[in-house]
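ok so heres the complex, six chains, lmk if somethin looks off
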Amino acid sequence: MKTLFVKDLKPGLEVTEFFVLRKKELKEYDGRRFLKLEMGDRSGRIDAVVWDNSDQLHGAAEAGEIVKVKGWVTTYKEVPQLKVDKMRRAKGEEINLADFLPASEKNPKLLYDDFRSVARTIENRHLRRLVDLLTEDSSLMERFRRAPGGKLWHHARLGGLLEHTLAVASICQKAAEMYDLVDRDLLITGALVHDIGKLNSYSVGGFFDYTDEGRLLGHVVSGDELIEQKIQKITDFPGDLALKLKHLILSHQGQLELASPVVPQTVEAIILHYADELDAKADAFSHIIKTQKTKGKKWSDWVRLIDRFIYFGED
Amino acid sequence: MKTLFVKDLKPGLEVTEFFVLRKKELKEYDGRRFLKLEMGDRSGRIDAVVWDNSDQLHGAAEAGEIVKVKGWVTTYKEVPQLKVDKMRRAKGEEINLADFLPASEKNPKLLYDDFRSVARTIENRHLRRLVDLLTEDSSLMERFRRAPGGKLWHHARLGGLLEHTLAVASICQKAAEMYDLVDRDLLITGALVHDIGKLNSYSVGGFFDYTDEGRLLGHVVSGDELIEQKIQKITDFPGDLALKLKHLILSHQGQLELASPVVPQTVEAIILHYADELDAKADAFSHIIKTQKTKGKKWSDWVRLIDRFIYFGED
Amino acid sequence: MKTLFVKDLKPGLEVTEFFVLRKKELKEYDGRRFLKLEMGDRSGRIDAVVWDNSDQLHGAAEAGEIVKVKGWVTTYKEVPQLKVDKMRRAKGEEINLADFLPASEKNPKLLYDDFRSVARTIENRHLRRLVDLLTEDSSLMERFRRAPGGKLWHHARLGGLLEHTLAVASICQKAAEMYDLVDRDLLITGALVHDIGKLNSYSVGGFFDYTDEGRLLGHVVSGDELIEQKIQKITDFPGDLALKLKHLILSHQGQLELASPVVPQTVEAIILHYADELDAKADAFSHIIKTQKTKGKKWSDWVRLIDRFIYFGED
Amino acid sequence: MKTLFVKDLKPGLEVTEFFVLRKKELKEYDGRRFLKLEMGDRSGRIDAVVWDNSDQLHGAAEAGEIVKVKGWVTTYKEVPQLKVDKMRRAKGEEINLADFLPASEKNPKLLYDDFRSVARTIENRHLRRLVDLLTEDSSLMERFRRAPGGKLWHHARLGGLLEHTLAVASICQKAAEMYDLVDRDLLITGALVHDIGKLNSYSVGGFFDYTDEGRLLGHVVSGDELIEQKIQKITDFPGDLALKLKHLILSHQGQLELASPVVPQTVEAIILHYADELDAKADAFSHIIKTQKTKGKKWSDWVRLIDRFIYFGED
Amino acid sequence: MKTLFVKDLKPGLEVTEFFVLRKKELKEYDGRRFLKLEMGDRSGRIDAVVWDNSDQLHGAAEAGEIVKVKGWVTTYKEVPQLKVDKMRRAKGEEINLADFLPASEKNPKLLYDDFRSVARTIENRHLRRLVDLLTEDSSLMERFRRAPGGKLWHHARLGGLLEHTLAVASICQKAAEMYDLVDRDLLITGALVHDIGKLNSYSVGGFFDYTDEGRLLGHVVSGDELIEQKIQKITDFPGDLALKLKHLILSHQGQLELASPVVPQTVEAIILHYADELDAKADAFSHIIKTQKTKGKKWSDWVRLIDRFIYFGED
Amino acid sequence: MKTLFVKDLKPGLEVTEFFVLRKKELKEYDGRRFLKLEMGDRSGRIDAVVWDNSDQLHGAAEAGEIVKVKGWVTTYKEVPQLKVDKMRRAKGEEINLADFLPASEKNPKLLYDDFRSVARTIENRHLRRLVDLLTEDSSLMERFRRAPGGKLWHHARLGGLLEHTLAVASICQKAAEMYDLVDRDLLITGALVHDIGKLNSYSVGGFFDYTDEGRLLGHVVSGDELIEQKIQKITDFPGDLALKLKHLILSHQGQLELASPVVPQTVEAIILHYADELDAKADAFSHIIKTQKTKGKKWSDWVRLIDRFIYFGED
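and the predicted structre for the whole thing:
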C-alpha cells in the first residue's frame, strides 16, 4: 500500500513508491534519448525523468497505468523533479485505487444503499422493472459505484456520479411533492438514470479521462442507448413511457448548445434539467471554496470555465 | 358583485355587469365618431363598441379601470361584440378584484402565514431584523399578498408572487440541508426577497401590466433599492452581509442577458438562481398543461416564448 | 382514384371526392355544434364545414386520414369553402397516396436501384454487411422509398429522403476521390444512413408531420439507435468502426446548436456535414425558384427560415 | 518623496525607496519559508523576495499598501529582482500618490472646475439641486477628483473618471444642440453622473483594483443607489424626472450583455450610451497608440479585449 | 400638381389624382380577372381595385411608378378602397416627387451648401482633391441631394442621407477637437463619404426600395467601389491614405454581424462608427417620438426592430 | 542553395546558411545592447542572438527578409539558440523560396494547367472573356501560382490557393451536374475567382503574413475590387451578370459573422459557399492528420481554432 504522496516529496528524498503514470514521452536531447514523464496520485502531480534505460523503461508501462517507481527527488529549474531509476507496472493486489484518485467523502456502500432505497420507492411496475434490471446488472453497478460525475468541473471524484445522482433525485423528490401534475415515478427514474451514460464516457484508470466513446458519442447518447437496451428486455414496456423516459435523458442538458439533441418538452424534463444544474453548480462552487478558501482570503482565483471569481466573504 | 362572465356572453343577451376596461380608443368612421373598447374579466376578453354618446362616455373611465356597463351582445363578423349604451366607473365597494383577475388557487391568508413562518426560521439577528421590518410594513405586505409573479408567463395571478416566493424558499431550504457550506439564513432571506422589486414593476389594476418603473428600472434594481432602504434603517447591519444579500437579489436572473447586472458569485447566489428557474418553469409548464390539455390531445399549442411544443403524453 | 383537386374547386360545384382531413375541430356557435375542418391534397388546402350530423361525422375520421366527401363549394367571407354533407374514411384500395402528397419527380424504383448500386460499391465487409442488413429489411426499405427528407424546408416530398441520401452520397464519392486520407467505405456508408432516423421522425399519413418520437428524441438519435440495433446483429463488427460510423450520424448536423450532440471530429464527419448542407440548401433554393419564379419577377418572397430574399436574376 | 522608479532599477543598485506592495505571498521551499512579493510604481512592476525575517516582514504590510523598502537589485533567471532586507508601511506625509499611479495629463483642479462649470449650465431646478448636492458633498468630490475611469482599458489613471465624464458631457452638449427633442438638462445631468458608481467600484490604493462592491453589485447599480440617496434628500423631486434620470444611469451600458439591467428607452438614454462608447473607445485606442507607436511600427500588438490589432499607419 | 392626399380619402368621394402605384397584381376570382393594387403618397397608403379593363390597365404602369387615376372611394370590409376606372402613367412635368415621398424638413439647397462648406475645410490636398471630384460629379451630387438615409428605420426621407452625413460630420468635427491623435482631415472625409454607397443601394421611385445592387453587394461595398474609382483618377493619391480612407467606409458598421467586412482598426474608424450610430439612433428615436407622441401617451408602440417600447414621459 | 535546415541544428554546430529573418528586436540588458532575432525556414524556427556589432547588424536586414548568417549553435535555458556573428541580406539568385516556405506537393505547372483547362470550359462569352483577361495578366498569374490559401489554417503553403481554387471548382462542377437550375458557367467562374483577393491579402516574403490591405480591407473586398476592375475593361459585360458574379465573391464566406458583407442570395452562391467550406475543412483536417498522426496515437492535440480534438482512430 502507498505511504508517500506527491505533496510530501522533498528534494533529496529517496523514493520507492506507487504512482499513476499520467504522461509518457520519449524525447531526444543532443543525441541522447530520455523519457519525460508525469507522475501523480490523489494529492497532486510531479514531473519525472528517466535518463538511463530510457528505451527499456519506455516499454514498462503506458500512460494511465499505475507503476512502482524507484528513484530520488531532485530539482530542475527550482521545481521538484523525480529522477527515476526503475519502473514497473503495479499489480492489482499491490494498490488501492483510492490512493490515486480523489474520492467522495461519503461511504460508497451507504451511497449505493441510498440509491437502492430511492429505486424502491418507484411504484410504476414498468419503471420499477427497469431500475431492477439496472441494479441486477452487477458489473454495471460495480462501475456505477466508482464512477466520477465529471472529469474536472463537478463531482470529479470516485463515487461522485452516485453522489450527484442522489442529490438530483433528492431535489426531484421535493419537486414531485410541490407540483401536482408531475409524474413522480417518471421523474425519479429519470433522475436516477439521467447521467448513466457517463459510465461509458469516462475512464477510471489512474486518473479520470474521456473515453473515445465519451468524445465521439457523448454521455447523453450513451445513456439513451444503455436505457434503450434495458427497455428492449422488458416485454410490455409502454411505448409512450419509453419515449418520455428517454426524452428525460436526452434533454437533461437543457439546451442544444449544451449537447442535448432535444430541448425539454415535458414538465418532468424541465424540472430534471434545473435539478441537475442546481446540484452540479452547487458542488462545483463548494469544491472551489473547500480547496481555495484560507483565512483572510475573500475571493477565489479566477475560474475560467465560468468566467468569474467566487466570493468567500469575510471570515 | 359580478354574476355574468365574458365566457358566458351569447348573442342576444342583455347585459348589466362589471368589466375591466382593457382598451379604449376614440375613432372616426365616415364622419361619425365612435368608441372602440375591449372589456374583460378573469374568464376572458370581448370587443365592445359605443356608437351613441361616444364623446361623453369617452370621459367616463380610463383603460385599466373597472366599469359598470349596460348594453347587449351582438355579433360583428360572426364574433360576439358588446354594444354599450351606458358605462360608468365602478365604486370600490361594488366589486371584488378576484372577479377580474386570475387568482392563486391557494388561500392568500395561508400563503402569507407560510411566508411569516419561513421568516421566523431565520436566526441571524440582522437578517431577522430585516425581514421583520418588511413584515411590519403593512402597506408593503398588503401589496405583496396580491402581487402577481409575472405579467404573462409564470405565476401571472393574484397571490402568484407569494406562491413563487414560498416555492423558491422551499427548494432553498432543501438545498441548505444538502450543501454544508451554505449560509442557510442568508439563502432563505434571499429567497424571500429576491423578487420583491416586482411590487413596483407590475400594476394590479383591472389587469396586470408593467409600470413605468418596471420598464425603466426593472424589477431587479427596484428590489435592490427597496432592500437597501430597509437596511439603512438597521443601525449595525454588517456591510459584508448587506453586500452578500444584495448580490443575491441582483444576480438572481443568473446571466447578464437575462437582466441581472452581475452574475452569481457566491454559492448561495447560484443556488437561488436555479431554485428560481426551477419553480418559474415548472409553474409555466404546469399552467400550459392545465389550460390546454384535453382528452386525446398529446401536444400543447406552440409556446412562442420558449420556442417549442409541450408534450402531455397519452391519456 | 382522384380526379378533382383543391386548386380546381369553384363556388357552385358539387363535389364527391377524396381529400386528406388535415384538421378537425368540434365547435359551438350560438348553441349549435358544428365541425370546422381543413381538407387538402397535393395541390393545396380548403376550409370545410359540417352543420348537420356534426356529432356523427365527428367520429367518422381523425385528422391525418384520407376521407371521401360529398358536398358542394360555397364561399365564406369571399373565400371558397366546402360545405360537407357526408364523410367517411377512404379504403386503402380507393386511393393513391401520390394524389395527396407532393412527390419526387424521379422514378422511385430507379432511385432505390441507385441506392442499392451505391451500397454495392462498399468493400469493407463489416460495413457492407450492415447496409445489406438494411436493404434486407423490406419493411424498413418500403418506408425509406416513400419517406420525405423534411417537413417543409428541403426535400419535403415522397421519395425526398432517398433523393437527398443519393445526392449526399454522390458528393461524398467525389470527395473520397479528392482527399486521399478519407476512408471511402466509411464515408459512403455514413452518407447512406446519416438521415435514416427520419423514417421514425416523420409521419407520412395524408400529409407530412412530426411523430412524437421525431420531437422527443430527434432524427439524429433515432438514426443512431436504428444503426446500433443493426450493428448488434453483426457478430464481429469492430468497436472502433462502430464508433466512427455512429459518430458520422450523430455529428452530421455539424454544430450542437443544430441538434447534433457532438461536433464532427473525423475528416469523414466534416465532409459528410458539408455535403449534407450543400444538398439540403441547393434543394431548398431550387424549390423556391421552381415554385416562385415567374416572368419578370427577379426576387422571391421573403424566406423567413433563412431571413433573406432569393435572387432569380433577369429573365 | 520618491526619486527612483522601477524602470530605472539596474542589477547591483542599492535601493532605499517607496513602492506599492502589489502582491504578497508567504511560501516554503525545501523547508525554508520566504516571502514572494511584487513591487510597483507608476513606471512599472518588479518581482521581489525576502529570505531573512520573512515571518516578521510578512506582517509589515498588506498587498495594496505603499511601503518603504531597503534592499538591492539582483537578477533571477536573467530578470531583475529586488532582494528586500527591510520593509515598513509608508506614512501618509512621506508619499505622493501620483508617484505610484498613472495620472491624467490634465490639471485636476482645472478638470474639476470644468465639471462645475458644466453643472452650472443646468437650468432645471430639480436637476440643478441634485448636482449641487453632489458638489457640496466634499468627501465625494474628493474621491471623484482622483478616481480612475477604469481598471485597465480606458481612462485607467488618476483623474480619468473626471476626464471621461467631461468628454461624455461635451459630446452630449453637441447632441443637445443637434436634436431638438432632447431634454438638454436631463441629458447633461445624466452625462455628469452616469459613471458615479465607479467611486465605489474601484479602490485607489497603491494601484487600481475592483472593490468587493464593484464585483458584487457593479458600478451601474452603485451609481443608481448613490443618486437615489441624493434624490431622497430633495423634497419635491418629480417622480417622472427621477425615473428618467435613473434610467440614464442604469441603461448607459447600452445592452443587457454589457451589464445594464435595462436597455435605453429614451432618446436621451440612447445618445448618452453612444457618447459614452465613443469616448471610451477613442481613449482606449489613443492610449494604445501613445504607448506602443514607435518609428516604423505600423501595427499595435494584439489587443485581446477587442480581438484585433490597431493600425498606426505609415510614419 | 397634387391636391388630394390619401389621408383625406372618404367613402363616396370622386377622385382624379396622382398616386404612387406601390403594388400591382393581376388576379382571378370565380373566372373573372381583376387588378389588385396599392396606391400611396407621402401621407399614406390605400388599397385599390380595377374590375373593368383590368387586362388593359395592367399594362398601363408598373409598380413603383406614379400614375394618374380616375375613380371613386368605396369601402370593402369596412376599410376604404379606391375603385379605379382609368389609370395612366404620370408625366414628369405633372408631378412633384415631394408629394409622394416624405422629405427632410430642411432646405435641400442649404443642406448641400453645408456639405460643401464642410468639404472645403479639408486641408490635405489628396483628400481635398477627392471630395472635389465628388462635388464636381454633378449627376452624383444630384442623386446625393435627394437620397434617403435608409428605407424604413432612420433618415428615411428625401434629403435624409445628406442630413445624416452632415450630422455624422458634425460629431466627428467635435471629436477631432477632443482627441489630439486624430487625423482630422481623414476623419471628416470619412464622415462625408461613409454612406455614399447608399446612392446605389436605394431606388427613389415612387417610394424608397432596395435596388438589386443594394441587396446583392450592400451599401458598404458599393461605397468602397465608388471611392476606389475616384481615387484611381487621382495620380499621386498615397496608397496608405487610400487604405485608411477605404477602411473607414468598410468598417463603419462597427461589427461583422452588421455587414462590415472588417472591424474598425484605427482611431478614426472607431470614432466614425460611434458617430454614425449616435446620429442614426437619435434620428430613429426622434422620428418615433414625432410620429407617435400624443397628449397623455407615455409610451410608443412596440418597436420591433429594437425590441422595446420608447418612453415619452409625462406631458 | 540551402543545405542545412532548422530541424537539423544541433548544439556545437558551426553554421553558414540562409534563413528567413522572422523577427528582429534591438534590446538592452544591463547597459549592453543586443539583437534578439528569430530565424526560420520551411522546417521550423529557432531563436537567435547578436551580441557584438548589434547596432550595425540591426541595419543589415528587416523582418521578413531572407539573410545569410554566420554563427554557431549554442543552448540557452536548454533550448538551442543560434549565436550570430555575421548577417547580410540574401541576393535573389542565391535562394530558392521553396526552401523557406512550405509548398504544395503538387506540381505548380500542372496545377496552373488545370486552372486554365477549367477556365476553357466556360462557354458564356462574357465570363470567358473575364477569365481570359485574368490569365492574360501574367504578373497576376505569377502571383496566383505561388499564393497560399491561408496564413495558418488551410492550404497554408505555396501553391495552396491554386489547389484550393481547383478543388472548389471541382465540387462545383459536380454540383452543376446535379442541380438543373444552376448556371454552370457562372458557378465555375465564381469558384475560380472567389478567393482571388487573397493575392493582395497575404505577403509571401520569407513567410506568410497578412498585408496591411489584408487586414484593413479583407480578402473578400479585395477580390471584388479586382474583378470589378477587369469587368470595367469589357465593354458589353451585362450588368446583371456582373452583379451575380460579384455577389458570389462577396457572399462566399456564407455569413456576416465570417466577414461576408452579404449572405448568399442565389443558388450558385449557396453552393459555392458550401463547396468552399467543404474543401477548406477537409484540407485542414487532413493537414492535422498528416502532421500529427503517429503509430498508436488515436487523437490529435487540441485544435484551438475549432475547439476540439480530431480522432485518428485505431491504426
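quick notes: The mean pLDDT of chain E is 91. thats all i got rn
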